[in-house]
Amino acid sequence: MDIVMLGHSAAGKTSYLSLMYAAMCDGVEGMTLRTADNDVHRSLQADARAILRGRYPRASDRPRSYDFVLCHNGGDVFPFRWKDHRGGALTEHRRGSPQAAQLHDDLVAADGIVLFVDALRLDTDPEAAQDVRRLVVRVHQAVADREETLTPLVIALTKTDLVDLGAPDAADRFLGPFLPLIEAVQETRHIQGAFIPLVCGPEPEGVALPVLWALRFGIIGRAMQLSASIDSLVASAQLADQRDTLWDRVSSWWDDVPSWAAIRDRDRALAAAELERLEPLVEPADRLGELLEDVFSF
Question: Which of 9, 81, 91, 222 has its CA at a distance of 20 to 30 angstroms from the CA of residue 228?
């Protein structure tokens, strides 16, 4: 699974990644993350410790990918790649811009998308809402080019400790710029959206939710694929069993081609192997559903 993280510069993506990884390493209801890259592990953990002391890392200036594995109760469950796009790619409108073109391609191919928006800037900068609308258009265009595969989409509103989300006009200010995207998502069956307020500072809040939302639907999508494969293989094995005869076995041996009995046994074995891959996904998917039931979704 490839999850693309994007947002304008200083929206908090770099801080989020470190705090999310540290929180998930500590564990959330039996869910943890790991990476085989020790340098990435040490770097993210060090940045998280610095943020908790009030020192923030520099914003990223280039795209980067991180390979993680979601674990449940100590066992590996679901590998995924987290792609961090630098904020400058969102302001590059030139057709030949490699960064803008790569961003569009990654969004079209992404298995999950996490959009980061600075709540403080949205609250204080008159131009911020227009920037968000351009960001929404970019994402909407890419999503429109996708096939109808199950895709989680998260709008992550950062720095919410610095704004008043309880103000009477908070919904207009913080949700309003996203309404075109939210309405477009609501008209689909395959995109599952969530709006998640975050605090990525010394007292972090909600940092595990975006990645868990994306992974839940990644796991569900994988489970659906495996289930469909199992059904197809079982049906094929049943058909082969009906066609199995002594004459077919003899003639197949003579012609040196697979007999219906061999096809039946092969498909049964393949179905059993797919079932072994499916079973470890069921409990984590159910647990994630319980953890995320209070998230505002669309």
Answer: 81
Domains contained in the chain, number: 1
Range of the domain at 114: 2-220
Distances (CA, A) of 215 to 34, 101, 114, 122: 14, 26, 11, 28
pLDDT score, position 160: 96
In a domain, 263, yes or no: no
Q: What is d(CA 150, CA 36) in angstroms, rounded to the nearest whole number?
A: 27
For 165, other C-beta atoms within 10 Å of its C-beta total 14
pLDDT of residue 143: 74
Residues of the chain with pLDDT under 50: none
Tokens of 224: 């659906």
C-beta separation of 33 from 112 below 8 A = no
pTM of the model: 0.88
Q: Write the DSSP string, 88-132.
A: GGGG---TT-HHHHHHHHHHHH-SEEEEEEEHHHHHH-TTHHHHH
Asked whether residue 296 is domain-assigned, the answer is no
CA distance 64 to 54: 24
Check if the beta carbon of residue 104 is closer than 8 Å to that of residue 90.
no
At 144 the pLDDT is: 72
Residue 79, in any domain of the structure = yes
Rounded to the nearest 10 degrees, what angle do helices 246-255 and 260-291 cross at? 100
The CATH number of the domain holding residue 23 is 3.40.50.300
What is the per-residue burial (b if ≥16 Cβ within 10 Å, else e) of 272-293? Answer: eebeeebeebeebbebbeebbe
Q: Under DSSP, is residue 32 helix (H, G, I), strand (E, B) or coil?
A: strand
Q: Report pLDDT for 62.
A: 58
Compute the distance between CA of residue 262 and CA of residue 81 in angstroms, rounded to an integer. Answer: 38
Q: Are strands 64-72 and 191-197 parallel, antiparallel or unpaired?
A: unpaired
